[in-house]
Amino acid sequence: MRHYKLIVIGCIVLFLGCKSTKENNTISATYKKNVLFIMVDDLRPELNIYGQNKISSPNIDALANSGITFNRAYCNVPVCGASRASLLTGIRPTSNRFLTYFSSIKKEAPNVLNLVQHLKNEGYTTISNNKITHLKNDIDEWDQEWYPSENGWRNYISEENITLEENGKHGNAYENIDVKDDAYDDGKTANKSIEDLKKLKKEGNPFFLAVGFVKPHLPFNAPKKYWDLYDAEKIELPKNSVFPKSAPRKANHKWGELRYYNQVPKQGQVSETMAKKLIHGYYASVSYVDAQIGKVINAIDNLGLRDNTVIILVGDHGWSLMEHGLWVKHSNFEVALQVPLIVSASNIPKNKKTNSIAELVDLYPSICELANISQPTHLEGESFVNALKNPSKIYKNTALARYHKGETLVADSYFYTEWNKKGKTIAKMLYDHKIDPDENRNLVLESAYNHIVDSLSILHNQKFNKL
Fold it and tell me: How far is CA 204 from CA 33, 125, 327, in A?
């Protein structure tokens, strides 16, 4: 899942956000590019383009082949609402802002110029399809904010699950039935986005089309043909499927989001059979969404919009599939913090990867630069466009993430987390991905690493105390 070997390439000359005009054969510095922004809920970078071969994701892989893949992109908080609020405002989560799934831009950052408002001020048509903000109507500036669901956000359509919910019980954590793609909401979202692209082309204005796919968020509902891509007998559990003895108790959690569902135990680990079923369902859901992404990108190509459009695909946070004995997000381990990030545009290199670190808070300024519009002064992230121009070079080597009291500093290959209470550090963990990429050996407990822990603690405090 991680690649630290740098890809050496030659010098690349880029003119970002510019267009040659037929009339005078000059470069227009004011040309604004369209932006297709695709956000996938709970998507971890377990994809072929990241060196994994467990999940079938040909359309995401094709997108990566047309642009730049970030090997090291991280969310700033591993929970839907907070992550999206931070991304769309360009400001970081703090100890009292953007902490939970119901984080609200209107309530927690009412005076901040959000990305949608800024783009609209710059003349963009702005459309949100399905889940972009976690809360509906949390941004008023959309020209259109559309949601597909008519049967609840869990989007059950099987008789079994509907009957369970109608009888006051919880549905299953997955659904496998033989239906067409657009029977589920993500298929409807792809269809709506394709129709929007047709209209946007006719109108001719620059656009920001944000497409939010909900799967692979629980429950893992996907048409049967995507389940059939995988042999259930070959689904494997992670090697580190037990919480490590060296990790602090603060790093553990009860994964309550999964325990909501039918047949999932309220305490203790799920059975091996259920664990493999859940992993199978996650894989099927990713393949289903991958197909929907392919449809939207094909529409961009068929409409002749590709050269004038920046395509960004990103996940809002990671997801645990029983690593460390954990499920869902809500932790400070890398598996909950790392996200896929792919950028494709006509004027950046193709089929390249970068090890320069990116954070989701960096997306706002990066979109501004890619679209060739101004960057508001309040932004706390930094544009990663230099990494797109020269992917072999490291422009950024740190990232910050938090989940409630846990504060994680990513610094080169180190992942260092502190939990603080009333000004005192009550727990720490340190992992070196060069020797332990799966984070099973907490180096805080080893005296040989005391000096590294002390140095990282100082850097950690310097960075988080500024927030």
Answer: 11, 10, 45
